[in-house]
Amino acid sequence: MKVDDSSHEKENKPKAIIVIDSLIVITIIFALIYTYFINSQLLLKILVAIMLVITLVWLLIVKTKKDPNEEFNDTKINKLVLLDHEGESLKEWYIQGIPSMLIGKSSPDHEVDIDLSDVDYASLISKEHAVLNFSSGSWFIEDLESENGVGLRKLGERSPQKLQSDNPSELHFGDMIFLANTRILVK
């Protein structure tokens, strides 16, 4: 299984944020030293004080603002829901505690974990279309070189991104999986 490149970016992101936050703090300290110890203009001191309060309030809001996906961590994903055209639930598969699930179409000589043989667009689903794997506390989906591909629309995004074969993509609560024209919601 390949490692998702986005996990590498997530590891480097906090270091960059720490550096930027440190530079902001250093700049504010130098501005305060100049304004209140070197400069003698009262108007400048008042303007800097107002800007400092505004900056601190903004930083407080930004730092305490929660990511919409944060409250739904990957350990809370426990099922997949097959949706119809109106968004109504047709089937559910509980996946919590299962390490891997094959998605496709079952036949007498071939069985899959998530059988889409009876969906409206079953003719567009490959026998082994995709696989879900649970690894390091997260769920990943991978296209198994299916004929019509796998799309993934992340929560809050407008359109799905087509997955590359043999390149697992991490799933999060609220993501939508597209297998040809079939939609499966991650819950």
Automatic annotation (TrEMBL):
The answer, when asked if Transcription regulation is one of the entry's keywords, is: no
Note the Gene3D superfamilies from the entry.
2.60.200.20
Among Pfam families, the record links this protein to: FHA
The record's section on InterPro entries has: FHA_dom (IPR000253), SMAD_FHA_dom_sf (IPR008984)
Membrane recorded as keyword: yes
Q: Which UniProt keywords apply?
A: Membrane, Transmembrane, Transmembrane helix
> What sequence ranges are listed for the domain FHA?
101-150
Q: Which SUPFAM superfamilies match?
A: SMAD/FHA domain
Q: Which parts form a coiled-coil structure per UniProt?
A: none
**Per its record, how is this protein called by name?**
FHA domain-containing protein
The organism sits in which domain of life?
Bacteria
Which residue ranges does UniProt annotate as crossing the membrane? 16-37, 43-62
**Organism (species):** Fredinandcohnia quinoae
